[in-house]
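Question:
Write out your own:
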Amino acid sequence: MTGGAPQEASPGGAPPVQAESPEGFPRQTDGFDRLWTPHRMVYVAGDQKPTDGGAVDCPFCAAPGRTDEEGLIVARGEHVYAVLNLYPYNPGHLLVCPYRHVADYTDLTADETRELAEFTQEAMRAIRRVSSPPGFNLGMNQGAAGGAGIAAHLHQHVVPRFAGDANFLPIVAQTKALPQVHDQVRALVAAEWGAGG
């Protein structure tokens, strides 16, 4: 590392990160500044993802054993639960997960399939009551090749979408500007869960 920039403490007690000075680097020719987010390398590199495909180190198997606040759980059902995405695209981005450690949609039981669909609908209703998004993205990525970050445990994404939410930050800087922290979002959505009758 070069330059005299101050050291910053890293998340999780890791050794301090030395900020690099732009001095001596080739000038960027595309006209964009760079917003570096090295703390996201834990996610990108897969440090927090299950390694063996089993339930032992699966975050979706571990979450239900925590309190709702600690596990970011919005609602619990008989076969599935709703949890905030730790790396959301937008505030309110949550996942509907079966309790059972199963990877493929075709392996769900009829009861799991039914409740997963019902939870997805209720997630949309609750999020609409909280923040009135004009649209949603719903979907499952099946398998690592299909884009699943945690392929071993099936999860349905429910992503609220807003006009202009895909600004330059995610595209150029690979960064999202999120106006609410997880605790606030979890409490708001949980309070509205089932409130519509």
About this structure: The first strand starts at residue 7 and ends at 8. The chain has a mean pLDDT of 78.
